[in-house]
Write a structure and sequence with these properties.
The protein has helices spanning 63-68, 125-128, 160-165, 183-194, and strands spanning 8-18, 20-26, 39-42, 45-52, 56-61, 79-84, 103-113, 116-122, 136-139, 142-145, 148-150, 153-158, 176-181. It has 195 residues and is mainly beta. A hairpin with a 3-residue loop joins strand 4 (45-52) and strand 5. The mean pLDDT is 93.
């Protein structure tokens, strides 16, 4: 489990297709404190550490994960939002995030509003019903509040701090973004279907 509060920006330094996709991610985390098999959310995808170095870790990514996320577009040099798994007693500053991406949204518009940036994204139709104004979503692993919803389109406002400590300062129209809907929204929708 994660909170959607990004704690490092990593960088892909190596990608290899070895049956599954294998990625080496440079990190500022103290890798002496990372166990083999640990879970690290990398752009919102919960990935398992399979190898470690002094300033990097490696993950193995199945074809299913590549198919359901934006990881197929990963390339060497790409910056990634990183978050280590939540520990009992940690502050829950965002919302409960599983790292199990539901689908991929597309950035369809950017607009500066004061010092902040309003980003409009288009969700897949089957996921749009779970997104509500003032609800939570995780986008590339970042816990965010939805401002408005119009059909499949929804808006997020990024303050300068968020753009500085995540990769959201790099966003552009056309970018494909890993989308995880709020777990509570999923269960509320399921319960309403059953009534």
């Amino acid at each position: 489990m994660f909170t959607g509060i990004i704690t490092d920006i990593g960088k892909i330094s190596k990608l290899e297709q070895q049956g599954d996709l294998r990625a080496r991610i440079e990190t500022g985390y103290d890798t002496d404190g990372i166990d083999m098999g640990a879970s690290i959310a990398s752009d919102g995808v919960c990935l398992t550490v399979v190898d470690l170095g002094p300033d990097w870790y490696e993950v193995q990514i199945s074809a299913e994960t590549v198919d359901k996320t934006n990881l197929g577009a990963w390339e060497v040099g790409r910056r990634l939002n990183l978050e280590r798994a939540l520990k009992v007693g940690d502050e829950l500053g965002g919302h409960i995030v599983s790292g199990h991406v539901d689908g991929v949204a597309e950035v369809v518009a950017l607009r500066d509003e004061g010092d902040s940036t309003r980003v409009t994204l288009r969700a897949p139709k089957d996921l749009a019903r779970y997104i509500a104004p003032k609800g939570s979503v995780a986008l590339n692993g970042t816990s965010l509040t939805v401002n408005e919803v119009d059909g499949c389109d929804f808006g997020i406002n990024f303050i300068p701090h968020t753009k500085e400590v995540t990769t959201w300062g790099d966003v552009d129209v056309g970018d494909r973004i890993n989308l995880e809907i709020d777990t509570l929204a999923r269960y509320v929708a399921r319960l309403s279907e059953m009534s």
